[in-house]
Structures are given as structure tokens and as C-alpha cells.
Specification:
With about 375 residues, this protein is α/β, with parallel strands linked by helices. It is about 25% helix and about 25% strand. It has helices at about 75-85, 100-110, 150-155, 170-180, 195-205, 225-235, 250-260, 310-320, 325-330, 335-340, and strands spanning about 5-10, 10-15, 20, 25, 30-35, 45, 50-55, 55-60, 65, 65-70, 90-95, 120-130, 160-165, 185-190, 210, 240-245, 265-270, 280-285, 285-290, 295-300, 355-360, 365-370, 370-375. Helix 5 (about 195-205) packs across helix 6 (about 225-235). It starts with 5 loop residues before the first strand and ends with a strand.
């Protein structure tokens, strides 16, 4: 851990409210101050006009650089953690797939036992499936879909921070209510769901408070059946995330989503093992995936996650939405941190010194974790 006092100068510092110039950020392992005064006895780091933000948080990523969370090896988690630094991602939820119970358990045990090295921090696990609806399985393998149950996840409640499930399936009501009551900081999300508008609204009263990759793998918005999408967009306190790769949803919806959800909207990648690589084919959840023009699809044409980088998601969203930089960056910093109940994602005194420097094209220059530089371009 770093013990040397560092001060970043000449940066455009993105706070929650504004972009500050003429200020400097001083930190060791934690952020010490954000002020116009440069402390004495500090290492000065000249940002040369780059933007400075809290480190990015990705709550939905399956893999990167040829590795996948479901590989269930320390090498895979290390490989993912190190590779996503180039995207500005300083922490993430390791996201599982609907596979056999044995493979899910091994993946969970692997995260539980992971000893982080020099890569992005693993905040815990996002369990995407196996408690989903086969009618909206997407790239999930319906052979392994299960009824929601505590037996699978009970040994891993220290690391499971988010669960995506279909609330309309048998057993979901009692499952969600139990989790909401006993694990209030767990993010319970509707996804891979064919729930009606009424069923979705009812699930909010049980404890569902989020929607996974809005519009995708869920009952769509229809003028005679508002579906999952209609219920989510209507409820102010329900958040959602979006894959802003210009493939999963048309970019014209970026601005609409922001206008409706504002501080309840997050950006994710849903990236698979081909993320941060250049290749023509890959796999996800044991199924072959073909890659072309930024799209990842199964053999039957089904979208299968993405190869999106989080800094690219920011660039895409900023291009198509009427949004300020502070509000944009909140979608990958303070908002996901708040949803997970974590004191992260802000450039404020006492917060972890996880920070990122990038240019106006959202190209990453440097990443610091706990005050130490871990990536430099």
C-alpha cells in the first residue's frame, strides 16, 4: 500500500457537481484533500490538462482478455482484473452465468478465495442466473435454469452482492423477500424476465430495486402491455443499467433513459472473455460466440454479452445524450457505489484513492488504486 503523499495538479477534476480547474487532488491510500493549495512534502503529478475522476465501477462483467469468471481459476480473475485497468475500471462485480451448479459453486468459491494482486478490485459477485425465465434466457443456457433457492448461495453470502433473477418464476417471491429482509445491501435486480407490467410492479414491493441491461432479455415496452420496461421506467426509485455499445439498444434511447432515470441509471459492459481482445470467435457459458463489428452473437444470432469497454460506454453515451460530464461519470462511480452500499466513487476526503486520468476521447492515461499507480499508457 502507498504511504507517499501525492498531489495531482493541472487536471480537470470531475466532481459530483462540476468540472474544477485550478484545483489539485492530494492523496496517499485515501484522498486527503481537494483544494487550490499544494501541500509541502508531496510528490507532484502533472496531469497536463487531462480529466481526473474517481475510478470506474462495472457491476456486470463476465470476462476480459481471454478469461472468464466461470473459468473458476485464480489466473482468470487476475487476468480480468489486470486487463480492465486499461478501460479505467478500478473495481467490479465478477459476474457468473447460468451453468451447472457445480461450475457456479466453483466460480463462487474461487472469488471467495481470491487474493488480489495489482489489478482492479473485485467487490464481490453478481449472480446472473440461474434463477431466470427460459423464455428470456438470452445467451444463458436454459439446461441449467433453477428455481430460486438459498441452498446454492448460502455459503457465499459474504461475496454475493447482486442477483439478477426473474421474479415471475416459482419461488421468487419468498426468495426475494428473504434476501431483502436479511441482506439489505444486496442489489436485487429483475432480468432475463418475461414478467408483465403488473408482476414487475409487485416485485418492487418485495425488494427488487434494479433492472439488468434495460430493454434486453426482458418483456419489452408495448403500447398495450407496458411490460418490465414500462414498470421500471415509471418507478423513480428503481434503477437500471444499460449496455451502451450501440448494439444492444439504439443510441436514441440514451437520452430518453437519462431524462427518465437520471441518478438511477448506470453504465455496464456485460463484457465476455473476448473483451480487450481482437478475435473472430470466443465462448460464453460453454457456448460458442462469433464476433463481428463490435457484436458478440451465438450461432443462432442471439446477442451474447459484449466486447464493450467501460470507457467506450462513457464515450458512446456522452455522444448521444444531453448530459454533463459530472452526471455522466456518476453512472460509473458514485451511483453504482451507492447501489451496492459502498463508500466509493467520490473524490472526497477519506475515500479510497482509486482515481483515473483520461483525455477528451475517454482514452485512459493512468489508473491509481489505493494511491498506487497500477496502469499507465
Amino acid at each position: 500500500m502507498s504511504r507517499n503523499l501525492k498531489t495531482i495538479i493541472n487536471a480537470k477534476i470531475i466532481t459530483q457537481q462540476e468540472v474544477l480547474e485550478g484545483y489539485c487532488l492530494t492523496f496517499d491510500e485515501k484522498i486527503i484533500s481537494l483544494s487550490k493549495e499544494i501541500p509541502t512534502n508531496t510528490e507532484k503529478i502533472d496531469a497536463k490538462g487531462l480529466y481526473l475522476s474517481a475510478g470506474f465501477i462495472d457491476i456486470h462483467i463476465h470476462g476480459s482478455n481471454g478469461f472468464d469468471v466461470m473459468d473458476a481459476t485464480q489466473e482468470a480473475l487476475e487476468g480480468i482484473s489486470k486487463s480492465v485497468l486499461q478501460t479505467g475500471t478500478s473495481s467490479f462485480l465478477a459476474t457468473t452465468m447460468t451453468m451447472s451448479q457445480e461450475k457456479i459453486v466453483k466460480a463462487l468459491e474461487n472469488v471467495q478465495n481470491f487474493k488480489a494482486q495489482n489489478g482492479a478490485k473485485i467487490l464481490g459477485v453478481h449472480l446472473e442466473g440461474p434463477f431466470i425465465n427460459a423464455e428470456k434466457k438470452g445467451a444463458q443456457n436454459d439446461q441449467y435454469i433453477q428455481t430460486p433457492n438459498m441452498e446454492l448461495i448460502a455459503p457465499f453470502m459474504d461475496i454475493v452482492k447482486m442477483i439478477t433473477l426473474a421474479p415471475e418464476v416459482e419461488g421468487a417471491k419468498s426468495f426475494v423477500k428473504h434476501l431483502a429482509k436479511n441482506y439489505p445491501n444486496m442489489l436485487l435486480s429483475i432480468g432475463h424476465s418475461n414478467a408483465s407490467y403488473e408482476e414487475t410492479k409487485q416485485s418492487f414491493s418485495w425488494g427488487i430495486s434494479h433492472a439488468t441491461h434495460i430493454f434486453n432479455a426482458m418483456k419489452p415496452l408495448h403500447h398495450r402491455e407496458a411490460g418490465v420496461v414500462g414498470a421500471v421506467l415509471e418507478r423513480d426509485e428503481v434503477s437500471c443499467d444499460v449496455i451502451a455499445d450501440l448494439v444492444h439498444i439504439h443510441p436514441s434511447f440514451f437520452n430518453l433513459l437519462y431524462k427518465l432515470k437520471k441518478e438511477q441509471l448506470l453504465l455496464i459492459t456485460d463484457a465476455m472473455r473476448a473483451g480487450c481482445l481482437q478475435c473472430a470467435s470466443s465462448e460464453i457459458g460453454g457456448q460458442k460466440v462469433f464476433l463481428s463489428k463490435g457484436e458478440a452473437r451465438l450461432e443462432d444470432g442471439t446477442l451474447a454479452g459484449s466486447v464493450l469497454k467501460l470507457n467506450e460506454a462513457l464515450k458512446n453515451f456522452y455522444e448521444y445524450a444531453d448530459i454533463t460530464l459530472p452526471n455522466l461519470l456518476a453512472m460509473v462511480t458514485s451511483i453504482p457505489a451507492n447501489k451496492l452500499g459502498l463508500k466509493k466513487g467520490l473524490l472526497e476526503q477519506g475515500y479510497e484513492a482509486d482515481v483515473v486520468l483520461f483525455n477528451q476521447k475517454f482514452e485512459i492515461s493512468r489508473v491509481y488504486l489505493d494511491g498506487d499507480i497500477v496502469f499507465q499508457c
